[in-house]
Amino acid sequence: MKLINATLCLSLAAGLMVVAPAAQAQEQLAASMCDYVKADDKNRFRKLLSDNRLRLRNIYDGVLCDGLSLIRFAVKSNAAGAGEFIVKQLPAAQITASGDIAWAESNHAGSALIAVLKARAGGGE
């Protein structure tokens, strides 16, 4: 019985060693995305997605910057270029459902991204 438990522990430990680098790489990608949005560097943001064969709409919900979604972080950082790129990569329904427009209007009323968000969401609100 002890041999089985020891083998199971070793198997789990080996599995964690394989998963840990992958999780670390994902955290590094997310950190790079946040850095590029904060710097309003649309081209490097786009290249990061392209080099890693990622579609923003597939990973958007899993990336937070300072506890904010990428769009909200772009609004907060006054990153109009990167923010517009992000908005254009997402489905209009996702932007409408996220509440980002109302959040931006109440927290950052002067942001240029509000018009971009509204246009992508269908001109409403």
UniProtKB/TrEMBL annotation:
Signal recorded as keyword: yes
Alphabetized Pfam families for the sequence: DUF3718 (PF12514)
UniProt keyword list: Signal
Leader sequence residues: 1-25
Protein name (record): DUF3718 domain-containing protein
Organism this protein belongs to: Rheinheimera tilapiae
Higher taxonomy: Bacteria, Pseudomonadati, Pseudomonadota, Gammaproteobacteria, Chromatiales
